[in-house]
Write a structure and sequence with these properties.
Blueprint: H1 3-12, E1 21-26, E2 36-41, E3 46-51, E4 57-63, E5 66-67, H2 85-88, E6 99-104, E7 111-114, E8 125-128, E9 139-147, E10 152-162, E11 168-178, E12 183-192, E13 201-208, E14 217-220, E15 244-249, E16 259-265, E17 270-276, E18 283-289, E19 296-302, E20 316-327
Antiparallel strand pairs: 1-2, 2-3, 3-4, 4-5, 6-13, 7-8, 9-10, 10-11, 11-12, 12-20, 13-19, 14-16, 15-18, 16-17, 17-20, 18-19
Length: 328
């Protein structure tokens, strides 16, 4: 937005708060009490809550007043319940929200791996809970700005997953939201801040809920093998539904060099597209959890833990994703 336009708008809305805002708040009631949220709204119609005490993830996402993300019965507890309980399934006691980042040294089912790289005699194996630990770590807020000249709202934060004689992994995250365009970018940098090699993997659990997810929902992605999995109108809750997870190679890039998947619903006239680099995230999974009272669909671009080499001391890996919200 040019300076003259800003001057005219400021005559009508002091500090332009009638158009956009970002503020840090603390929840005072319920399971999330004590948790810090960044509440953000943009004139492009995007509103979101970023949960600083839940890995800096996007807890809530809406577009023009319409909720897009998934909300579980857990109600985003802060802090996240212990991940290592229930044989590594403690993750399910805190699982909630539109984006849950899984990692940084593991994603997938609970397992054990060799701890030989740590050179600590008392630890023979690393115990990894379901989907790792980063989502339960607290973020340090570096900056939050509304950049009218750059046409975006920008948040920068840092989250660290650490252990003595274990991993020292740092996630630096920048989230940008367009002021004039309903677009969101997530730029992550994962760095091994320790001095030993460290196992690394990351999975982006984008969770869609009602009303975007419903019988009229269709998957999007021309080169995605799973695109047709909702074409039969199967996105309906069922008391006896057992979750289904399909995983495969990330879709071939489109003309702009990015893989594209998403979901649209003509009934509510909304489409959500997720764009990412398949070279960074070579595997994509689709999670269908249509059990009544859960009713969620997950779009999950991720690294391959089997193929990835460990992060060496000081090494950084980059992950860049874009979300585009559109009218159908």
């Amino acid at each position: 937005m040019d300076q003259q336009s800003q001057i005219q708008l400021r005559r009508r809305s002091v500090l332009l708060r009638g158009l956009a805002d970002i503020r840090l708040v603390t929840v005072n009631d319920g399971p999330a009490a004590g948790g810090r949220l960044l509440e953000l709204r943009s004139p492009s119609g995007v509103a979101m809550d970023i949960a600083l005490d839940r890995g800096g993830d996007i807890l809530r996402l809406s577009f023009r007043g319409q909720e897009l993300g998934w909300h579980s019965a857990n109600s985003a507890p802060a802090p996240w319940p212990q991940l290592d309980t229930e044989k590594g399934l403690g993750f399910l006691r805190g699982f909630d929200g539109f984006l849950v980042t899984c990692g940084l040294d593991h994603h997938g089912v609970a397992t054990e791996t060799s701890a030989a790289d740590a050179l600590y005699p008392l630890r023979k194996v690393n115990a990894h809970p379901l989907h790792g630990r980063i989502m339960a770590c607290k973020a340090e807020l570096i900056t939050k700005h509304i950049k009218w000249d750059d046409d975006l709202i920008e948040v920068v934060l840092v989250v660290r997953q650490t252990s003595v004689f274990g991993e020292v992994l740092e996630l630096e995250r920048k989230i940008s939201v367009g002021l004039s365009r309903p677009e969101i970018s997530i730029s992550d940098r994962v760095t091994n801040r320790g001095y030993r090699p460290t196992r690394h993997g990351i999975l982006y659990h984008f969770n869609i809920g009602y009303p975007l997810l419903d019988r009229s929902a269709k998957l999007v992605g021309e080169t995605w093998d799973f695109q047709h999995f909702l074409d039969n109108g199967s996105a309906v809750p069922s008391d006896d539904h057992v979750e289904i997870v399909n995983a495969g190679v990330s879709p071939d890039p489109t003309e702009n060099g990015l893989s594209v998947i998403g979901i649209e619903n003509e009934l509510i006239k909304t489409r959500l597209l997720l764009k990412f680099d398949a070279a960074q995230l070579p595997v994509t999974a689709l999670w269908r959890a249509f059990q009544s009272g859960v009713f969620a669909l997950g779009l999950e671009p991720q690294t391959s833990l089997q193929a990835d080499a460990p992060l060496s001391a000081g090494e950084t890996r980059k992950y860049d994703l874009e979300l585009v919200l559109e009218d159908v």
